[in-house]
Each structure stands twice: as C-alpha cells, then as structure tokens.
Amino acid sequence: MTALPQPLADWFATRGWRPRRHQLDMLREGRAGRHALLVATTGAGKTLAGFLPTLAELIQAPTEGLHTLYVSPLKALAVDIQRNLVTPLDEMGVDIRVETRTGDTPSDRKARQRIKPPQILLTTPESLSLLLSYPDSFTMFEGLRTIVVDEVHAFATGKRGDLLSLCMARLQRISPGLRRVALSATVADSDGYRAWLAPDGDIDQVAMVQGEPGADPNIAILLPEGRVPWSGHSGRYAAEQVMAEIELHKTSIIFCNTRSLAELIFQDLWKVNTLSLPIGVHHGSLALEARRKVEGAMASGRLRALVATASLDLGVDWGDVDCVIQMGAPKGSSRLLQRIGRANHRLDEASEAILVPGNRFEYLEARAALDAVEAGELDPDLFRPGALDVLAQHVMAIACAAPFDQAALLDEVRSALPYSALTDETFERVLHFISDGGYSLKAYDRFKRLTKDPDGLWRVSHPKFVAQHRLNAGIIVEATMLNVRFKNGRNLGRVEEGFAAQLSPGDTFFFAGLSCEVMKIDTEDLIVRASSKPARIPTYGGSRMPLSTNLADRVRGFLAAPDQWARFPDDVREWLEFQAKRSALPRPGQLLVETFPREGRHYMVAYSFEGWNAHQSLGMLITRRMEAVGLKPLGFVSNDYALAVYGIEKITDPAALFSPDILEHEFVDWVQQSHLLKRAFREVAVIGGLVERQHPGKRKTGRQVTFSTDLIYDVLRKYEPSHLLLQAAWDDARARMTDVGRLAGLLDRAAETMLHVDLDRVTPLAVPVLTLIGREKVATGSADDHLLIEAEALAAEAMRID
Questions:
Q1: In angstroms, rounded to a whole number, what is the distance separating the alpha carbons of residues 609 and 745?
Q2: Which of 200, 419, 485, 626 is the most buried (most CB within 10 A)?
Q3: In 206-257, where do the E strands start and end?
Q4: 288-299 helix and 75-92 helix, angle to the nearest 10 degrees
C-alpha cells in the first residue's frame, strides 16, 4: 500500500532522498480513503506528504477535472506551493495541471477555472467560499477526491476556520467520497483538530499521523553588551549586534511582533549597515507588488536579511535562510517554533534562532519560551462555537448557487463541528436576518436578500443580491485604510485612516523603508514624496499579540523559584533579589498588588500576567470604578505582565476594585459607551452581509462603511437590542477585543489570592510598566531618549535599600 509510482520513486532517487515514514503513512491512509491529520516539524516535507496520495493517484490513473483542493491561510503560501509543486512535476515529466485561485487571480482565469478546472487547485477559504456561490459549483466539485488544509492551526479556531468548516460540509454533500487532510507543525490539541476536520466531528474517522522528529533547534538569547534594559519591548537597543549576526549568516529573517516595529527595526538596521548588505522589509500593509518583489528576491538569494512580521510565519519555504532573529519576546512557544522553522527548512539540520528580549520581564519570557520548546510544550488551542455572522455569509453563498431546503441545509451545517450544537431557533433567526434584516429593518427592501417560496425552498430575492454577495464576501475586515502613493501613482501600501487623520502636509513618517513626506490627503489616498527629513512611525491597530497562558505560568514560576535565578544574567537576578527584599514576589496563582506614592500621585500596580489585551480592558474598568467611588483616577498603563493605575487619592482597599461584579456593571457600560461594540458591530455587519464594502465599479471608503454601520447600530440598540448581529458583536467584543475570558478568571480568584503590599516608594518589579506612562507625553522623535532617562531614574529609586 506504500509503493511509490515509478516517476515519483525515480524523482526521490535522483535527489538521493528517501520518502520519510510519515510521507508513506500519509500515502497509505490516502489509498485507504481515510481522513488524516499530519503533525510534523517544519522542513519534514509536510506539504509533499499531503499531496503524495494525489500525485500517486494521478500518475497511476490520470483523470480530467478537479481532483484535489489545497487550502492555505495565505495567498503568498499558495503561490509558494505552486512553485514548489510545479518544478518537481516538470522534472518527473508527468502531466498534472496545478493552478492557484486567490483574490489576485485574473478574472478571465477564474472564469475558465470554473468551466475547465485544473487537477490540483490551490486556494484560500474565502476564494473557496466564492466558488461555492456559483451554480456550476455542483459540476466543478462533483468529482473532488481530496481537500488538503495546510497550516490548519493558523485559522481552525477562528472565523476563517468557521467558514472553511462550513465549506467542507458543503463539499462533502456535493462529493460524498471526499477525503479531508490537514497539516500542521504546531498543534497542542491534536484530538481537537481531528474533531474539527472530521465530518460530523467524528474523531475516529481521522487518522493521526505523527511526523519523524527533527533535529532540536539551536536557540540563544542575545544579551546586550551593557545591561538588559528596564523598559521597551522591541529589542531596538541591539541593532548593531543583530547586524553583526546578519553579517555572519548567509540569509536571516528578523521577525517583529507588529508592522510598525518592523519599519522601525528596518531603519535601525539600515543605519548600522556599514557593509551596505541588501536587506528588505515585508509586512501585510505593503502593496502586493512590493511584497512579491521582496519574496522573489529572498527566493533567489539576493537578500541577506528580511525584516518581517506574522505575514511570513507560515510555510514559505526559503531553504537558504540559516538564521531567524526574534525582536522582542515571542509571546508563545508555538509561534516561536513556527518562526524558528523558517531557518533551514530541513528536518535533519538544527534551526538556528536568536531571541532579543526588550526588557527584563521579556528576558524571563524568552527564557520561559526556550524551556517550553525544550519540553515540547505548545500553546493551548481554544476551540469555540461557530460565529453567526460567518454562518449568515455562508448561507447567502449557498443560496446564490441554488435554492435550498431549510432542514437539509441545517443538517449540513451541523455536520461542521463549530456549528454542531446550532439550535433550530438560532438557525431560524439567521435565515430571517438574511431575509429581512431583522424586525427594526424589515421595512427596507435592501435588506430582503432571501425569499421563501410557496414550495418551502429559500432563494435569493433578486439577482442584484448575488452580485452584491460575490463582491463583498470575506472574513477579514481590516481597519479602515488609506493608500500611500507617490504623486506619479506608484502605490507603496496602506496606513490606517486614524493615523492619516493626524497628519498634515509637510509631516513625515517611515513606510516601506522610506521616509515619506505628506503632500496631500484625499478621500482614499495619502499622497507622499520621498524625504530625507526625520520621520514619525505609523501605528497599526489590532497587531498586539497576547502572551500565551503557558508562558505566563512559566514566568510566574521563575519569580517564585530563586534556585532558577542562577541561570539569569546578573542584572536580572539582582532585579528579582531586590524586589524580594523591598516588597514580595508573587507565588504561582497569587495576585500581587503594590500601592505606593510618587511625585504627588498614588499608584497601584497589579502583577496579573494575563496579557496586554486583558490588562487594557481591566484598566478601563478599574478606572471607571475608581471614578465612581471618588478615588479620582488620572490614568493607567499596562504591558503583558502588569497593570498600573494612578490617581490623586490613595487606594487602601484594592480588593474592592477587583470584585467579579465589575464584569456585570462597569464592563457592560464601558463596551456600550465606548467604540468597542460599534467597532465589533461594523465587522459583523460587513461579514454578515448587512453592509456592503463594494458596489459594482466602486468601493466604499472605510469612512462610508463606518458611517453606514454606525447608523444601523444606533437604530438596533434603540429598537432591537436582541438583534442577531448585536449578539454576534457582543461575542466578538467579549472574546477577541477584550480577552474577557482571561479577565473573568483573574477577577474570580482575585479576592482569595490577592497579596496587597503597601510601600513608601516604587519597587523594582514596577519599573518596566511605569516607564510606559512617559510614552504618552513625549513627541515620537525624543521618546526613546526620554524613556531611557525616566527608566534609569525610576530604577535608581526602586533599587535603593534604605
């Protein structure tokens, strides 16, 4: 059952390779017709393993029509896979057509693919959903044998995973013999993914294939020549040392956790690039042609280093990369492993990686990440029920293809694991939302997208709604963006409208590796010219990565284990020793809260280790409660490890501020009164199809979309607070935007686990978070110098033993 067809066997032999055990296991499962999940380290030939049964079958029994769908979370990955698949097929001399279909595919090719598809089609969840909205999807997919989901960990637990699971349910109906395959390098809960992949969530239908172990990675923490900094989170202080590593290696990728940091690091490296080595920058806000140009330069070995964000976390195979550098803490062991895997991309060679912590807490986090990788501990995978706005979009896609029976479609939808518990009543609400927009909007024809016929079938009310759906379908709703262009029309990429609104002609900012001077701002474009002036840095929304719970637990463990401190640099060890003398160090599970005065203000610092997102939300809630009880708050700052609140009055009873009922009262008031719920509603309204982003021939600006959704939001809040989309918006606001799950856990245990220490001045542990207060006061250009001075002054005060 595992013998390779001759062309494949010869291809392996001419390279001096042998098929890996897991590749042959995947071939055996494929020939047996079983669904399979392959978990194997990067460089183990996962993608080839996923395609091996398809290639073997098409070589031995060639067929016309679509045989295999490959679904990737990234358009760039689909393009990369095509390159890495077509070359071997050409070398084998076999006639198997492989094509990509993404948002970037020309429209004439898309039309031809529906009539005469290739044997292997590489696509994304959104493009697959669009294909299923055409009447000819039934003939296109009726002979489909296999679907391969690559990098499944990247989207299975989110809304794109919801959409893909619904698409797979539809494909299984069209082609009952369809075999499902998923691939990943970093999966903690393999049973959870097997259930997600399986029809009807039947885990026993999915074989678990474990890849051969690879060489252990070689990971080091880069320490500065002086001391580990007190503040910051970027590792920018180490630019010269990072440049030295680039000079030592053939090709390096420097990963940053945010797009704005990538731009900063690129500039820092360029300033110390005395050898003028070719280096580039790559992130999701750059124009497609700019990203493709950089990807091509990396693939052909023309760059010595590339500064990148999560846009390159997944799968892109550049075998000449021999070093990965992570700027700032990695925030999770799975993410670190994924990024390390970009080095060498070979199973038997150790990947080389260097971590550059931004401050002393980040040093502990980097050390925790190394220990977690060594122990094989991955970040937890959190599966949740499917989103209703995604379901509404999918139902509309199905209706665009053909009228449907309500009971039959509900049965199909429930076969997708995220929707397995969907009730009849909720499905009815989804259908009525699509058919009339809800009680408050039913007077408007524009919301009547579905109609129920006398024969009981649901169909699209008018052909215009079909065109509207295909123009607007998609799960990713980006922050409102403006195009950054030169006057001659050359497009550099996009920045957030909120950032652009702060700019005036003559202002400068770094973007795409250039200092850009603003010439003009119009409705959709920010017109710039290249400048030699010093620049401001764009800030991008939604790019903060949360600290994973397992790394947070490991850092907590370090604080309570002095026997571990000998592993740390002298200044980190001294920092913890002085904290223990001056105040306390929290034990695992304990919430340390310190209060102290400084410069006429009263401070409260809580070391909760729940991540920046949860701490930001908690800061908003606690300051509201302080206001209500007369404590006169002035503000708060947070990082991944702590929350600091400051005000005019002394806080004598912190426990009263952390009571769980804050989530029933202040949380609801805050979310409803702030822009959080409006922002969440905007996203679900776009995904659910209530508001269009595009009309034929023109695209709405983000401003126009926001205006439309805000009007509808206000109507629904007033007249129909139980509306389906308001419910979906609340779900998003609770989970994704505020991390309320981690918040609830913290508040539930706060009363029992709180250790309150009242002090006469700032403590060593408080210094990293308190230095953030200065960040808001200073112009961008001088912020780093100012914060350095502020941190040293705070540290001197904190580390003094009276």
A1: 12
A2: 419
A3: 206-210, 218-221, 252-255
A4: 40
Q: Which pLDDT score is estimated for 546?
A: 66
Task: Give 341-369 pLDDT, tens digit per residue.
Answer: 655 555 556 678 888 888 888 889 889 88
What's the half-sphere exposure (Cβ side, CA atoms, 13 Å) at 614?
24
Read off the pLDDT band of 499 (50, 70, 90): low
Distance CA 648, CA 601 (A): 5
Give the helix ranges, DSSP H, for 175-300: 190-197, 239-248, 259-271, 288-299
CA separation for the pair 282, 272 (Å, rounded): 19
Residue 400: per-residue pLDDT: 97
Q: Which residues of 199-221 are buried (b: 16+ CB within 10 A; e: fewer)?
A: bebebebbbebebeebeebebeb
Q: What is the pLDDT of residues 405-416, one digit of tens each?
A: 999 999 999 999
Q: Answer for the pair 496, 543: CB distance below 8 angstroms, yes or no.
A: no
DSSP 69: E
Task: Report the DSSP pairing between strands 179-184 and 252-255.
Answer: unpaired
Q: What is the pLDDT of residue 288?
A: 72
CA distance 312 to 321: 13
Phi, psi of 538 (to 5 degrees): -70, 145
Q: For the chain, percent helix, then strand, then coil, each to nearest 5?
A: 50, 15, 35
Burial of 223 (0-12, 13-18, 19+ CB in 10 A): middle
Q: Which two tokens stand for residue 692?
A: 């269009």
Angle, CA 593 vertex, CA 616 and CA 223 arms, to 5°: 70
Q: How far is CA 593 from CA 556, 584, 606, 761, in A?
A: 14, 10, 4, 14
Q: Which of 686, 684, 714, 706 is nearest to 441 (CA)?
A: 714
Among residues 668, 722, 154, the alpha carbon closest in space to that of 438 is found at 722
3-state secondary structure 611-660: CHHHHHHHHHHHHHHHHHCCCCEEEEEECCCCEEEEECCCCCCHHHHCCH
Six token digits for residue 596: 């102290």
First to last CA, the chain: 76
| Three-state secondary structure string covering 436-477 | HCCHHHCCCHHHCCEEECCCCEEEECCHHHHHHHHHHCCCCC
d(CA 288, CA 293) in angstroms, rounded, equals 9
Q: What is the pLDDT of residues 632-679, one digit of tens each?
A: 888 888 888 899 998 889 999 999 999 888 887 777 777 766 556 777
Position 778 scores a pLDDT of 31
Confidence check: pLDDT of 393 > 50: yes
For residue 739, give the nearest of 646, 790, 663, 794 by alpha carbon. 663
Whole-model pTM over 0.85: no
* pLDDT of the residue at 782: 39
Q: Are strands 643-647 and 633-638 parallel, antiparallel or unpaired?
A: antiparallel
Strand partners, 494: 483
Q: Mean pLDDT throughout 533-545?
A: 50
Handedness of CA 724, 726, 729, 730 (dihedral sign): negative
Q: How far is CA 709 from CA 127, 697, 700, in A?
A: 25, 21, 12
- Mean pLDDT computed over every residue of the chain: 83
